[in-house]
DNA sequence: TAATAAATTAGTAACTATTATCAATTTATC
DNA sequence: GATAAATTGATAATAGTTACTAATTTATTA
């Protein structure tokens, strides 16, 4: 029923997400895309992030700052969240598929997706604390 | 500087969390504790949940409904979130400590906590869908 | 037990992230 | 180019959570 039309703004949002290694919030994406589209509205950012997620082009990843973070990498991969500066960092851990298999054992529902998040102090925050 | 005094309300909140197997939101806890303290305020719920978390007596667990969920079980354990009904369910998976060890390898920060969340359909939602 | 200080409460206002609404603009189709 | 559907910018509304304050409760000391 709902067809997707092309939109420059949506393309810019997706490209912005593709280029960054960070896992920006809607607000950060807003500020980034504003350089190209000075009149873009925050509502447009949210609307398109939802659309892009629904069509499986990006994923929403949770952190602990009560803001949604977004990632153009749709492969399942673990994240690290720094409890001090709030940075969200990709971790490189292969072969975590077995976790889903393990979770499905003895569970009467159906596990489809897994999300592995680590918390602690990122490299620079950890270093700064030791230097104080 | 800040000492914790005893409070009946805080005790009731903690007891409520201890008794339930669900992973209620602040609102659900509010409604539960209201039976014992009809005049309790939602602010009191939030204030004490934060205090209890800060003192390590409970933990906050994320789901995907943009509401915080709480758990009196402070052991690290994986959760399952039903994408249909929103239920948060404990999963039984032993020996997940190695995940933290694994994550720390080749990472320059310090991993302290891990959080493993699975998404999918819970038993009853899965069954109901097949019966339609 | 009474007096005092600090912590906590109920009630409410304020804040923040996100969603909904809507007239105007853009995109796709013919 | 004309038409219909999708999208936008702007703004209002919503929802979860936090902040504020005077009144109450708890802990301490005599």
Description:
Chain A is of the alpha+beta class and 132 residues long. Chain A has two domains: 1-74, Winged helix-like DNA-binding domain superfamily/Winged helix DNA-binding domain (Arc Repressor Mutant, subunit A); 75-132, Ferric-uptake regulator, C-terminal dimerisarion domain (Dna Ligase, domain 1), CATH 3.30.1490.190. Chain A has helices at 8-19, 26-34, 42-54, 97-104, 123-131, and strands spanning 59-61, 69-71, 79-82, 88-90, 110-121. In chain A, strands 4-3-5 form a three-stranded mixed β-sheet. A two-stranded antiparallel ribbon of chain A has the order 1-2. In chain A, helix 1 packs across helix 2, helix 1 (8-19) packs across helix 3 and helix 2 (26-34) packs across helix 3 (42-54). Chain A is flat, with a radius of gyration of 17 Å. Chain A binds chain B through residues 60, 62, 64, 78, 80, 82-83, 89, 91-93, 99-100, 102-103, 106-123, 125-126, and chain B through 60, 62, 64, 78, 80, 82-83, 89, 91-93, 99-100, 102-103, 106-123, 125-126. Strand 5 of chain A pairs antiparallel with strand 5 (110-121) of chain B. The first copy, chain A, binds a DNA duplex (30 and 30 nucleotides) through helix 1 and helix 3.
What is the succession of H and E elements of chain A? HHHEEEEHEH
CATH class division of the largest domain in chain A: Mainly Alpha
| pLDDT < 50 runs, ≥5 residues of chain A | none
Helical fraction of chain A equals 25-40%
Enumerate how many helices of chain A there are, as a single number: 5
């Amino acid at each position: 029923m709902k067809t997707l039309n092309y939109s420059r703004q949506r393309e810019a949002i997706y490209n912005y997400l593709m280029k960054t290694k960070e896992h920006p919030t809607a607000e950060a994406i807003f500020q980034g895309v504003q350089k190209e589209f000075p009149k873009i509205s925050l509502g447009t950012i949210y609307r398109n992030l939802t659309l892009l997620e629904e069509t499986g082009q990006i994923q929403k990843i949770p952190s602990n700052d009560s803001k949604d973070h977004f990632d153009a990498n749709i492969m399942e991969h673990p994240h690290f969240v720094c409890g001090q500066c709030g940075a969200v960092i990709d971790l490189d851990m292969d072969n975590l598929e077995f976790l889903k298999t393990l979770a499905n054992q003895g569970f009467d529902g159906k596990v489809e997706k897994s999300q592995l998040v680590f918390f602690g102090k990122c490299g620079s925050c950890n270093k700064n604390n030791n230097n104080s």
